[in-house]
Amino acid sequence: xxxxxxxxxxxxxxxxxxxxxxxxxxxxxxxxxxxxxxxxxxxxxxxxxxxxxxxxxxxxxxxxxxxxxxxxxxxxxxxxxxxxxxxxxxxxxxxxxxxxxxxxxxxxxxxxxxxxxxxxxxxxxxxxxxxxxxxxxxxxxxxxxxxxxxxxxxxxxxxxxxxxxxxxxxxxxxxxxxxxxxxxxxxxxxxxxxxxxxxxxxxxxxxxxxxxxxxxxxxxxx
Length: 222
Fold this sequence. Notes:
By secondary structure, the chain is mostly helical. Helices cover 38% and strands 9% of the residues. A 3-stranded antiparallel sheet has the order 2-3-4, covered by helices on one side. A two-stranded antiparallel ribbon has the order 1-7. The chain has a two-stranded antiparallel sheet with strand order 5-6. It is globular and about 65 Å long.
């Protein structure tokens, strides 16, 4: 989130924008944070390292912060109660799925987005009762195979949901450390694009090369 806010103007042009630190300690710290993010994004399947507090999954938040599925919040597996809505009750911190709910869900978890898409809404859209999507423009009609789907809420959906909520919570908890590290990197020595080009680390397209000459982009590469 901090990265996107800081480089909003640069990110309006397609391509990656990465401040590359010239400080060895900052570089090591950044790679370690990167491993943690990959570990979280892959639900503990990659970059697991118990010595670095990255045990192999399933991943969990500290006990007091974990989302909970109480008995009265159980998501029905009856075909007649297949959920078709997912909403959030900020007052009770409940994620409402059909007639069921998951408690102890923080607002930031509900709002969490990746590439402008709200993660929980996107996840649910592939598991709800009505998965039809409106045709836009000349897009091909959906395949009939799309109708071959469960007619009820599967127990594995609930497991996926709880796992996902824990992962989102841990990603959010990591954000302050990421913001602090980004500030240290940007305020410290960084490697200019020109040095990378001379070293043959990569080749810039002509347009990107011209942009790299501007002060605001001097230490970013695409």
